[in-house]
Amino acid sequence: MRADRLMAILLFLQQREQVTAAEVARELEVSERTARRDLDALAIAGVPVYSRQGRGGGWRLVGGARTDLSGLTAGEARALFLVAGPASAATPAVKAALRKLVRALPEPFRVQAEAAASSLVMDPQRWGSSPVERRPPRFLDELQDAVIRGVQLRLGYVDSAGAATERTVHPLGIVAKGPWWYLVSHTEAGRRTFRIDRVSSADPTNDPVHRPGDFDLAESWREIADEVDRRRTPLAIQAVCVPDGIGKLRMGLGDRLEVGGATADGRIEVVIRGYNEYALAGELAGLIEWLEVTGPAGVRDRLASIGRALVERYG
């Protein structure tokens, strides 16, 4: 990618007092013509670089200008910016240090560095109970590169039913949800989320992404995840639980449990979400020691039916 080459040239200039186009070409494994064009692009973009003509000439940074990124490759530098992002598990001190590196970049590179820092969200809460850990999907690097560079993608995709489609999308961010990876994009039909292991092709275009000015990846993902959770667990039941049972409910129900206030008799109000009355009643029947379901009536009827069946078989 040209942006990566320009970053690599800047880092190469910092390591050497002076470089020639031929040396840059050998370092980056490109033609001398491409190297000269990239060096000119740096100067045009405002990087303090200039050329000296004639014997012993070459390219230099004005006044020996440097950043604190000497010795890093372009990929390594971008990896640091990802670590500096809000989704990272790095300590505040590490993030602060990396943000200083971002500010030390020349202006032409700072936009991509900041884009890298905000391009990824990590959501550790799994959908479902599968403990399987999966490798990063095939097109993850290409999709994240498009997010950082802000270019549209021609995306091939196979949905859960096996139907293959192709469309142009505006990639806005990447989310890791448990073992799965998702691409959040804007499309002609509005905001859409694509599971990256179902992407069959990802071809970047030269067209810029139309990114809403107030877009925030973490906030957008919270909205998406909440909507998915509502679809997966559309039924909500009300119940009261003895205080000693709240821990049991948390272990068994996870984020499907909402804990409310205390009642007059000292029990705790809770709301529990599930897929349907039958499945939720079967799940809650084993919690009878701690839990009393107060509504809806359909779930109470299911629990009563389960109780009668248990007495008939085991009583």
UniProtKB/TrEMBL annotation:
One Pfam family per UniProt: WYL
Keywords, in A-Z order: DNA-binding, Transcription, Transcription regulation
Gene Ontology molecular function: any one: DNA-binding transcription factor activity
InterPro entries on file: CBASS_pafABC_assoc_protein (IPR051534), DeoR_HTH (IPR001034), HTH_11 (IPR013196), PafC-like (IPR028349), Tscrpt_reg_HTH_DeoR_CS (IPR018356), WH-like_DNA-bd_sf (IPR036388), WH_DNA-bd_sf (IPR036390), WYL_dom (IPR026881)
Domain of life: Bacteria
Annotated ranges, domain HTH deoR-type: 2-67
PANTHER family membership: PROTEIN PAFC, PTHR34580
Name of the protein this chain belongs to: Transcriptional regulator
Organism: Actinoplanes auranticolor
